[in-house]
Amino acid sequence: MKIDSTTTTASTVSETRNRTTIAQPAAGAAAEVHLSALAAQLQAPAEAQTFDAGRVAEIRQAISEGRFTINTGAIADRLIASASELVGSQR
């Protein structure tokens, strides 16, 4: 089995880079950017966090005491709803 020389590949890459042009905006042109709702949520200030340290402490305590129960039906229902929403948004 013969291994081909890589000089052809290197020259092809070099030629491709030389042919590639980058479109530059016209002088004075303004760019318009639209962010998705998710991007806006990610940029929200830290005060708007939904993390509740008190609730986490309650759940941790309940787990350690053996009082925490898992509602598998509710988890399954929410998982199915989330998957359905994801599939619906991709269409």
Write up this protein.
The model has no long low-confidence stretch (mean pLDDT 77). The longest helix has 18 residues, at 72-89. The chain is elongated and about 65 Å long. The chain has a domain at 55-91. It has helices at 7-19, 37-42, 53-65, 72-89. It has 4 helices and no strands. It has 91 residues and is mainly α.
Quick structural overview:
The protein is mainly alpha-helical and 91 residues long. It has helices at residues 7-19, 37-42, 53-65, 72-89. The protein is elongated, with a radius of gyration of 27 Å.
Topology (SSEs and partners):
Elements: H1 7-19, H2 37-42, H3 53-65, H4 72-89
First-residue to last-residue Cα separation: 47 Å
Radius of gyration: 27 Å
* Continuous helix count: 4
Briefly note the structural class of the backbone: mainly alpha
Would you list the SSEs in sequence order as H and E? Answer: HHHH
The largest sheet is: none
How helical, in percent, are the residues? 40-55%
Low-confidence stretches: none
How confident is the prediction overall: mean pLDDT? 77
Into which percentage range does the β-strand content fall? under 5%
Instruction: Count the beta strands.
Output: 0
- Spatial shape: elongated
Key attributes of the depicted protein:
91 residues, single chain, 0% strand, 55% helix
